[in-house]
Specification:
8-stranded parallel β-barrel, globular
Length: 253
């Protein structure tokens, strides 16, 4: 991975120090909590946004996701989803950030795939009216069982401002029976961003890159071949051990 394409999530306790030491960007996760968009004070465990902004020279913003989905059946829930997504887009704009991550919002056993795809596409056509031409919104998989739920939305919306954030750790949980490398191949035509962390193939653990069943080195090689311009964020509670591992394995240029 080229360092200019690599970011550290602000969930990492050492993200600021590690970003400075390795010359990496930071993905701001503070606004995953929707109340922060309303001016609510930071939680005691959060790294202040201002500290992150002073620790790097490039940023991605991760928007809110709890109880939000553009495929919501209840119109009031849909209104809240649109409001929160618009707030996140505006926050990114005011911070000068040109890439934002939002969850696609699929709920298994609740939405029929056809409904999810059609409804999501319609809502994203509407929301993209608020997205500047030089900003990219990346839809992230969480509970989606297959990549086609995301790629079909991309095909239906057909707008370069809407792309995919492939979370390889989420793809390797009990939510999906499709291998992470097959997710990567399927998403490659629309891939703009990747979240990296490892697990044992069941729960979403956000474990270190070397602590799990995924072949991170192999996946990074495949990513380089399929989508060499995609950015990557390490979504880890501690960054330095995985960064040292990447250096040892000659995976961080």
């Amino acid at each position: 991975m080229r360092r200019e394409l690599v970011y550290l999530s602000s969930i990492g306790a050492d993200c600021c120090e590690a970003a400075q030491a390795f010359g990496l960007g930071i993905e701001l996760a503070q606004f995953c909590t929707a109340a922060r968009l309303d001016g609510a004070p930071a939680e005691p465990w959060e790294i202040p946004v201002e500290r992150c902004l002073s620790a790097a020279d490039r940023f991605i913003l991760h928007g809110p996701f709890n109880e939000l989905t553009p495929a919501a059946i209840d119109p009031l829930v849909l209104d809240v989803t649109k409001k929160r997504y618009r707030q996140a887009i505006e926050k990114a704009r005011t911070l000068g950030i040109r890439k934002i991550v939002l969850h696609a919002g699929f709920l298994p056993l609740v939405y029929y795939p056809e409904w999810f795809i059609d409804r999501s596409a319609a809502v994203w056509r509407e929301l993209l009216c608020d997205v500047p031409d030089d900003m990219t919104v990346c839809l992230e998989n969480v509970l989606e069982p297959e990549p086609q739920l995301l790629t079909a939305i991309m095909q239906a919306v057909h707008d370069p401002r809407l792309r995919i954030c492939l979370d390889l750790g989420h793809a390797n949980t009990c939510a999906s029976e499709i291998a992470p490398e097959d997710w990567l191949r399927a998403c490659a035509p629309y891939l703009c961003h990747v979240h990296l962390h490892n697990n044992q193939g069941g729960r979403d653990l956000h474990a270190a890159l070397f602590d799990g069943v995924m072949d991170i080195a192999g996946l990074l090689s495949l990513l380089e071949a399929l989508s060499p311009q995609a950015t990557c964020t390490l979504e880890l509670p501690q960054d330095r051990p995985s960064l040292d591992w990447l250096v040892t394995k000659h995976l961080l240029e």
